[in-house]
Specification:
Porin; 197 residues; 8-stranded antiparallel barrel; mainly beta
Length: 197
């Protein structure tokens, strides 16, 4: 996973090396609000894709001045909430994480960013415990687990307010029934729509 994230970051840097002057950051300005809707590949086998919604507000922009890209660089803060179910709904995961991103725009209309996230996951599980041949007992529980991770992504804007986005992520979650501490809950790859207000 780390190799994939490094490869994608390298491609963005390579693309930016020959880019024309961007002049200033376009899509992560202070006070801007962006909303994302994505579907992703869950890090474990699921009956459905991981569906998420995220929102971010720009905190500061234009604090890095470069010769080729003008007043660039921005930071924002936001939230992501997602949902995934598997085994016909016997198990489901609902993570809610705060995210902070650093943006740098190498190419016009392309917003490239990377960040860290931290939050909690509600993890529900249930199964039939066959105590005796003639009886069964449904066992179920919902746990709360700590989530921490990082991500990189890019948004390509067709208009000032609409675009497409992709993200690659890696996260770690506290141990749950049937899962180790190294199994994440956020999709390693997700894509969808981006809206800027």
């Amino acid at each position: 996973m780390k190799k994939i994230m490094l490869l994608v970051a390298s491609l963005f840097i390579y693309a930016g090396a020959s880019a024309s002057n961007v002049e200033k950051i376009q899509f992560a300005n202070s006070g801007d609000f962006s909303l994302g809707l994505m579907a992703g590949i869950p890090p474990y086998v699921g009956d459905m894709p991981f569906i998420s919604i995220d929102g971010m507000v720009g905190l500061k922009d234009g604090f890095i001045h470069t010769k080729n890209f003008g007043d660039n660089g921005a930071v924002d803060l936001g939230l992501l909430a997602g949902f995934n179910a598997f085994n016909d709904g016997d198990y489901w995961s609902l993570p809610i994480v705060a995210r902070g991103s650093f943006h740098f725009e190498f190419v016009k209309n392309l917003d490239v960013y990377a960040g860290i996230m931290s939050g909690v996951e509600l993890y529900h599980w249930s199964y039939n415990d066959f105590l005796e041949p003639a009886t069964t007992k449904m066992i179920k529980d919902t746990e709360t687990n700590f989530v921490f991770g990082n991500y990189i992504g890019a948004k390509w804007h067709f208009t000032e307010h609409f675009g497409l986005k992709v993200e690659f992520a890696r996260d770690w979650v506290g141990a749950s029934r049937g899962r180790g501490v190294d199994n994440g809950v956020i999709p390693w790859f997700a894509g969808g729509l981006s809206f800027k207000f």
